[in-house]
Amino acid sequence: MNKLTKIILILIIALFIAGMALYPTISKTIENRKQSSEITNTPASSPAKEGRGRPLSVAVKIIQPENLVDVIRATGNLIPDEEVDLTFETSGKITNIFFKEGSAVKKGDLLAKVNDKPLQAELNKLQAQIPLAEDRVFRQKTLLEKDAVSKEAYEQVTTELEKLRADIDLAKARIAQTELHAPFDGVIGLRQVSEGSYASPTTVVASLTKIIPLKIEFSVNERYVNLLHQGTHITFNVPPDPANYPAQVYAVESRVDLKTRTLKARATYPNPNGRLTPGRTASIEIKSSEIVNALTIPSEAIVAEMGRDIAYLYSGGKAKQIEVLKGIRTASDIQVLQGLHAGDTLIVTGVMQLRDGLPVSIE
């Protein structure tokens, strides 16, 4: 026996011994898999078979005519009636801040002031020259009446007086620029500066927002542009608040947006007591049309089947299949144009399990 034959023989013997050692484990695994397969393939008792002969429990609704309102829904934003960043018209060190953050202010209220001492001094200097200039004009006029001076001399002192008065008006205007007044009634926001800080015309002191009334900005698809015009009534709510608020459109954009194919509009809401806050998202509804005495059913009561729309009526303890013709759709209901009548008992639950003639019972 050569060396190669011996090696092969040894390998065969080793494999035989290993197989004998692993046989119990392999056998047990096969048996478990067989049992699992049998369990899997064993037909289970389906609810339908277990409940054979037992009527399916369903909920029903008696169909009654009602007014159906077709609405267009949109999403918009609450925006303030007016809003501005308050800044000084001149530069200087802030000497006084008179407002309280988050408080309501009236138009014309003094809110803040920068240093005006140099301007006040200039104003006092100019005003001190007024009596002397007026006296010169008086004397020149008297002399002119007596032909003691030329008309040019009189006009020169008159011009100097007018120039002095103009300089006084300019000084007063510059002093007015050192004061920051509220441009309209509103609520002032958080203060961005402190007394003693240097302010320039680009320095924002605070923001002022007018929230009474409030505006609602929204857009609708171009298909509905004819519904939007000045005076259109809308309703809106601000989630999670379920309350509905009335508003009225006061302005509509002049053209449809070419990118979004929508038309933007704005409505106004009185916002009594400032209850609603600008910046929030609003869900908007616009009444498109209203159908009086329409037959409507819940949308889940209709099943699409092979190109037909099917509903089921409760009749003598059984489900009766009816083909219907749908009309307009709202958020939860569908108008039925044909197939159903007022007083019919419509099955509204379990419709996916129903078939014509299936025994049913009312919950």
Write the layout of secondary structure elements.
Elements: H1 3-41, H2 47-50, E1 56-58, E2 60-62, E3 66-86, E4 92-97, E5 104-105, E6 110-114, H3 117-128, H4 130-145, H5 151-176, E7 179-181, E8 186-188, E9 198-199, E10 206-221, E11 233-237, E12 245-252, E13 262-269, E14 281-294, E15 296-298, E16 303-305, E17 308-315, E18 318-323, E19 325-329, E20 333-338, E21 345-347, E22 360-362
Parallel strand pairs: 1-22
Antiparallel strand pairs: 2-21, 3-10, 3-14, 4-6, 4-9, 5-8, 6-7, 8-10, 10-13, 11-12, 11-14, 12-13, 15-20, 16-17, 17-18, 19-20
Helix pairs in contact: 3-5, 4-5
Description:
Helix 3 runs antiparallel to helix 5 and helix 4 (130-145) packs antiparallel against helix 5 (151-176). 27% of the residues lie in helices and 37% in strands. It is of the alpha+beta class and 363 residues long. The relative contact order is 0.18. The longest helix is centred in the first third of the chain and has 39 residues, at 3-41.
